[in-house]
Amino acid sequence: MAAIRVSSLTLLASTSASASAASSVFTKLQFGPSWGISLTAIPLCSRRTKRMAHSIARATLGLTQPKQIEASKISIAAKEIDLVEWKGDILAVGVTEKDMAKDENSKFKNSTLQKLDTQLGGFLSEASTEEDFTGKAGQSTVLRLPGLGSKRVGLVGLGSAVNSTTAYRSLGEAVAAAAKSALASNIAITLASPEGLSAETKLSTASAIATGAVLGAFEDNRFMSESKKPSLKSVDILGLGTGPEIEKKLKYAEDVCAGIILGKELVNAPANVLTPAVLAEEAKRIASTYNDVLSATILDVEQCKELKMGSYLAVAAASANPPHFIHLCYKPLGGAVKTKLALVGKGLTFDSGGYNIKTGPGCLIELMKFDMGGSAAVLGAAKAIGQIKPAGVEVHFIVAACENMISGTGMRPGDIVTASNGKTIEVNNTDAEGRLTLADALVYACNQGVEKIVDLATLTGACIVALGPSIAGVFTPSDDLASEVLAASEVSGEKLWRMPMEESYWESMKSGVADMVNTGGRQGGAITAALFLKQFVDEKVQWLHIDLAGPVWNDKKKTATGFGVSTLVEWVLKNSS
């Protein structure tokens, strides 16, 4: 990321013995094929599985091996049941500020809260007043009160009148956090005013709540010497309907969550564990798991040389860990393919900056394990798509994985490298390496005959400066593709913002001795980076670039977010038949 200040190996997962026999190189978190949402709780995972680490036959630096951890089993069920009668550890109610309105006697006007308060002898209204709970977003209170089937009752603020994926996902996360604190095994989540929601909105709301609860319950403790076993076993979603439609929606949420959790684990893993080889092994494992629809091709250095990937190989040249070019291909089980898509993810498993080494406060070198956040999103999406199996769409998942290190064999400032489309690049900054790897990845993607490409990369600190830590920048010359991806992000709840492709800024990217330099000045750095990538995309292919340098990491929680997975999956499904 640009600073803020053996023999050739090609394998098909469906036929490769090594792919099918290999244990998970990085993680064995595998959700079962069915989440079985119904009137009775059915396990999120249909079988006990383990999250573990790579099995490369050598000791890693520091002798660190992620622990084998038994994946927690959470069952999710949509139910219609009287709140007073529900039995479990925590009954949580999502409330808006309007829901918290009270009459002249300080009693709730909302019928749901009124019913609970009456059963609790008025203590719920009293407690909300004493704690100044008004239903604002981010507020929550959990009380242990006698009178209900549940041991505790909680109120979670949704803010003003809301109808957004983000708010309902936050509701699920908040209740899961409360469950952790209370060591609760069984929780139920409902809304104070579900009657105002349409049938379609109820489905998406239930999905968002379930997603929040599953992700909120997840903890990545593979690298801790001691860790608590998750206590949460079941989540009941009350009052939003039952039946096949909501079951289908919750199954979709399960599949996406599986991809997001994989994405989080990939980004969280340190660079001494997650090398380019390990990332490639994880990709092969995904393809092997879903070999009815996914195949894997891993290109080694010699094969990349044959394809003239000089730009990518120049970045990788300094590292003792060789590069691995990853290509997964999804093809539907049957029927005609109407659309061909490519998802390209930046895969720098560590970025030192090269000879333009990252130094000084704010350089984030200690976090440069997350410089493969784009590839994590792409592989997380591949896992989810492998489970969902959409019809009518072919998807190529492409990652040019490598490290950007320093050695006598490494790329130097001033070197000229040649990309696989023949264009030459003067390297004026070795810390603008991600775009060099993406250049050859984008050319490769275009050569697959795809119609649309979305690439994701932790590309520039400039994008963080422009949009902050929570919003990813979107760059594309295609209004149609921008509309598609932004619509997908609205459904997923991930924040994207379209940025300009100001062609006049390309002047700063011109070289006196090559076709271009790899970075311009500090001003408009995210824009010039996108303009650089555009040089390696066929004009006939619709292309969109997402700079997720900000939202890839949650600095407050010091953990990866899994950003990008849900938007990519939603976009692919919108392009399926």
Automatic annotation (TrEMBL):
Domain Cytosol aminopeptidase intervals: 429-436
PANTHER family named in the record: CYTOSOL AMINOPEPTIDASE, LEUCINE AMINOPEPTIDASE-RELATED
Protein name as it appears in the record: Leucine aminopeptidase 3
Catalytic reaction annotation: Release of N-terminal proline from a peptide; Release of an N-terminal amino acid, Xaa-|-Yaa-, in which Xaa is preferably Leu, but may be other amino acids including Pro although not Arg or Lys, and Yaa may be Pro. Amino acid amides and methyl esters are also readily hydrolyzed, but rates on arylamides are exceedingly low
Signal peptide boundaries: 1-21
Assembly notes: Homohexamer (dimer of homotrimers).
Co-factor requirement: Mn(2+)
Domain of life: Eukaryota
GO BP field: proteolysis; response to wounding
Record organism: Forsythia ovata
CDD domains, sorted: Peptidase_M17
Family: Belongs to the peptidase M17 family.
